[in-house]
Each structure stands twice: as structure tokens, then as C-alpha cells.
Amino acid sequence: RVLETELALDLAHRQIAGGHITLLQALHHNKVLLLAIAYFFIVTGNYGVEIFLPTILRDWYHPSDGILTWLLMIPPFGALIGMLVIGFSSDRTKERRFHAAMPILIGAIGLGLTLIQQQPLFTMIILFTITSIGTKAYLPAFWSLPSLFLSESAAAGSIGLINSIGNIGGGVGPILLGVFKDRTGSFFLGILFLSISMSLASIIIMALRFDRRHQQELDKNTQQLTMSNTNDELIISTGEAEESTTLKESLVL
Fold first, then answer.
1. Is residue 245 situated within a structural domain?
2. Helix, strand or coil for residue 151?
3. What is the number of structural domains in the chain?
4. Is residue 112 part of a domain?
5. How many C-beta atoms surround the C-beta of residue 61 within 10 A?
6. Contact 152, 22 (CB under 8 A)
7. N or C: which end of the chain has fewer CB within 10 A?
């Protein structure tokens, strides 16, 4: 019964999305490629900041190792809260694109503000926490985007492609930040590059257009199929109970 429901949902999704799209077609889909590019830009910013954050704080403020360790725990904790809040909001409103793009943009702005010199250490930690929220909180909504225009099987394949291309940024970001630091003796250009990279990711996601009616119809079909499945299970359970009662009565007689 569960398998039948999943197959019915996949069929309904393909019909709502405008027909069957094969995995090969999905890998060449313009929106899939744009999402891959956007993910590349955000991962570039994410890893660049995460890997160099201890070095940046030590270079700018010279804290002790103990204090630095405690300070580095704050941004990930903020990112966890942000991810839960944004994910809950996205599920409650059934909106994905805005919930994916805006955290990234806010994180890019926060990262850009770190370039203002002579800021207190506490202020800088807040800004890097905002950056960390931006590089993590978008994830629940972002990975829901392929399912807005692809069938479940095609969306799964496209997610693999997006992830493969995007993770290249995990090497590009730290390398370029290190190169800028070596060439200029400052983190200014490197951080500016990462901030621009994150901004581009947000712009690309916001530029994509998804027909929300497709998602609304899919949610409606999902609810109907789930209710149908539940009713069938209740009928089966009731039938089994009646058969058991009849059998007991016949044995008593």
C-alpha cells in the first residue's frame, strides 16, 4: 500500500509538472544548471569563511586559544537555530525560493560588514554569526526547489548533479581567500570576493520562477492519497476485526 501511494504521488507530480522528464533531460534542465551554479557560489562563500575564520579572528584581534575556541562555537550554534527557524517557516508557508535566497543575501551582507575596520570583537562575532546563518539556514528550502519542477526520480538525480558541481566551491573559496591574503597581506579582497559570491547565489535563486500552483496541487494530491491510504487501512483493519469476531462466535457455537 505504501509503495502504491508513492508511485501514485510520483505519477501525479509528473503530470502536474507538465509531463514526464527523464533523468537525462533533468540534468540538462536550465533551472537545474542555474541551481548548481548558485550552489557553487554559496559553497564557495561557506567554506572560505569556515576554514579561515580562526585565522581571521587571530589576525585581527589576537585572542588566546581558549577564548578563540569559545568564540568559534557561536556562529555554528546560530546557524543551527537559523536552519530550524527557516525550515519551519518554509514548511508552514509552503514557500521555497524566498526562504532559500534571503538567508544567503543576509549572510552576504553580514560578511560584507565585517570589512568595516576597528569594530569590537563582539560585533564581529555577531556579523560572522549572521554570515554562518546565511550559509546554512537556506539548505532546507534550497533542496526542495528541484521537486517544484521535476518528478521525484528526476529531482533525485538533479540533486546529485547540483551537489557535485556546487561542492567544487568548497575548494575554490578557501584557495582564493588564501591567495588574496598572500598577495595583498590582507583578508579584505578575499572576504569581499566571498560576499559577492554569496550575493550572486541569492540573485540566481531569486531570478528563478516556479509555478506555485504546481506545488499546491501536489500538496493537495498528497493529502488526498494519504487520506485514501489511511481509509483503506481502516477498512482492512475493520474487516479483519469483523472476521475475527465471526470466527470466535462460530467457535463458541
1. no
2. coil
3. 1
4. yes
5. 15
6. no
7. C
In the predicted model, what is the mean pLDDT of the chain?
82
What residues have CB less than 8 Å from 137, skipping those under 6 apart?
79, 82, 83, 85, 86, 87, 103
CATH of the domain at 183: 1.20.1250.20
Q: Is the dihedral of CA 156, 161, 164, 169 positive or negative?
A: negative
Residue type, 31: K
The number of angstroms, rounded, from the C-alpha of 209 to the middle of its chain's C-alpha atoms is 17
pLDDT at 227: 59
42 grid coordinates: 554559496
Kindly state the cell numbers that stand for 201.
547565489
Residues 99, 100, 104, 107: is their CA dihedral positive or negative?
positive
Look up the pTM and report it.
0.76
Within-domain flag for 248:
no
* Grid cell listed for 141: 528550502
> Coil, strand or helix: which one is 205?
helix
pLDDT digits (tens, 9 = 90+) for 136-149: 999 999 998 988 87
Closest CA relative to residue 136, chosen from 94, 106, 159, 181: 106
The pLDDT assigned to 247 comes to 45
- Domain of residue 95: give its range: 22-211
Determine contact, residues 27/164, Cβ cutoff 8 Å: no
The pLDDT of residue 178 is 94
Q: How confident is the model at residue 157 (pLDDT cuts 50, 70, 90)?
A: confident
* 3-class secondary structure, 11: helix
Q: Does a structural domain hold residue 127?
A: yes
CA 84 to chain centre: 11
CA torsion through residues 98, 103, 104, 109, sign: positive
